[in-house]
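Here is one chain, start to finish.
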Amino acid sequence: MSATLNTLHTALSLAASGVPVLPLRSGKVPFGNCRTCTGNACGGRPNMKHAGPCRCPGICHAWAAATTEPAVIASPAWGAAWRQAVCVGYHPGGAGLTVVDLDNADAIAWAQGVLPATRTVPTTRGEHWIYRGTMRSVNAVRDGVDIKSTMSYARWLGPGVGTMTDLPDAVRGLTVKAPSTARPAPHVVTVPALVEGGECRHRTPTYLARGIAMAEQRISEASSAVHSTVYRTFLAVLSAHGRCGCLTEAHMARLFAAARAKGETVRHCNDAWTNARTALGM
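Its structure:
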């Protein structure tokens, strides 16, 4: 089977399972607008799931043109694109999915310590962790980590291994901006109360220990935006470990100490912890 036919066959199989697809050209990027659609003069808008009012038969609206319609995918208008395509892309949000794109070994190690296990797909330099659920897409939420879901595309690299799980708060929290520290906190928490009674999801006793160690390292290695890094790290720790009562005051003391070592005050630490708990509804 030729490369073109193999790529088209993969695209049609994915579409049949409800995954919107599009061809990706050299560089693993979508095909650009045709002359008629340049600058979205046709009326198609890139913030729409499909090309909107545009009637262009070609594949020129990037992820927004991703479709599950076999007649469109196999149409002559898309034929030239498939002949030039190097791989199949898909719109995760359109399939009800979120891809956490881990671009290096450090990012993978971080995910293994913080995020719940799910389906994983090996990539050229790292892994895709795929969760059930959608959210907004954001690049560079931390070193080597991108979020691809709505208004984005990902390469299809195979079905992966493992059981897909629901999108956790720890992933959603990666895109939450830290609240401004200029506003006074409603109250000061000296010893944060922990949420207890939930089901423990830790696979082994080392899961929590690794997560705390990774959180300390993330704070310690922050070279800028320390306030934001502390808040997002607290948010990730609480998302993964805060609902089952496994966090102790000793764990909190380690995280606060790491933040203090980067110049954060006790008040900033308490504010970040309280705001993270509020964001998660704890």
